[in-house]
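Repro:
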Amino acid sequence: MDMELQLARQAIGLLDLTSLNDDDDEARIRDLCRRALTPAGPVAAVCVYPRFVTLARQTLNSLGGQQVRVATVTNFPAGAADVDAAAAQTRQAVAAGADEVDVVYPYTALLAGDAEVGRALVRACKAACGEAVLLKVILETGELRDPALIRQASLDAIAAGADFIKTSTGKVTVNATAEAARLMLAAIAESGGTVGFKPAGGIRTLADARLYIELAGEHLGTEWVTPAHLRLGASSLLDDLLQHLGRAAAGSSKGGY
């Protein structure tokens, strides 16, 4: 039980608690920010649509959650091959107060044989972010499918300035998988291990979180597995983690988290 409790706590600290629904409203985003400050500690970030960035930052600050970062998405979810538009969206997100931007890589262009537009888009968006704002590049690995293309997109994004590479938008049929994670983590290791990794989409249980935490540790070492290098993008994972912690606490003579 102690190991399970420790893992659940670790996963909470790695979590990008996400709400990217078409019907999101201010009340839902405020609730997301409240949930981000859990009895077991804060999540790493909340991830919301650009129009909610300022609200999320204000809400977190009002709750004493200044340490929780605000992430948003650009070029989302289609991953268009319009470099100028993606860069402009990213600049707007940064101006609104985003700490992190998750931009969708133009994966359809790569599927059509154009790798340069992906490199150009990442470079432009990283320039828009500057050094202070993290750029996470969503490769949409479930659409790329081919291991060679996933590897190429990973290496190209890293070379172009990505701070993290991320599996998925969560908006397609196949999202995060162990196979894609292995390919991406290998590319990160090959590139020096400084870039982070974010699986997203379909991560709902402690067992799912354990899979990616263990894969990251196998490829890059357990000391690498911190919020600076590993994030778990999910909307429903937190509930499962808190349930595990609650059961563990109930079985402990000390009680509490």
